[in-house]
Here is the input.
Amino acid sequence: LIAAAAQTARNAMQRELTATLGTVGATHVRFLFGFPFALLFLFGLLAITGDHLPTVPPMFWPWVIGGALGQIAATALMLSAMGERSFVVAYAYIKTEPVQVALFGLIFLGDKVTPLSAAAILIATVGVIVISLKPRTGTGTMRSTLIGLAGGTMFALSAISYRGAILSLGLPDFVLAATFTVTVGLVIQAALLSAFLALR
Here is the structure.
């Protein structure tokens, strides 16, 4: 119940932000807000573990930039879906992300999906869609369906790109690799969106 209430409150806040600032402005707020917390967590982790910032290989940059751009596009699509009359339908299709993550992981990273994992992903995804597509919501419009599927695709590509960036660091400590990657991604996102809005 607490999680549902928090989700409802967050959705309402995001709708209000999108109405006030536009889709790009509301997307910018999400990344700008997370950026200082990611920095604090990263430097706190370094202080606790005594580690240093990792040496970044060239392969890291295409992955992390792809992840950052994919997440910007995915977030913008999700916020755009909130303005749709068939928002629930669009959101249900966004939740096809786990299936797409498994597929893109296989294509780009050679990840193996066991039959049990595939079944779990499929059941969970179908469950979310079935719960969301209640009779009162109908099937939604083609626009809401396309926004939802595109949003799910971009979230999946972003997740796979971030995973590729994490693996490219080759660090034994996965927590440090993941934290560093997400922090760099947020810096890129905040900088790009800030520059875009300033130019606009």
Observations:
- The radius of gyration is 18 Å.
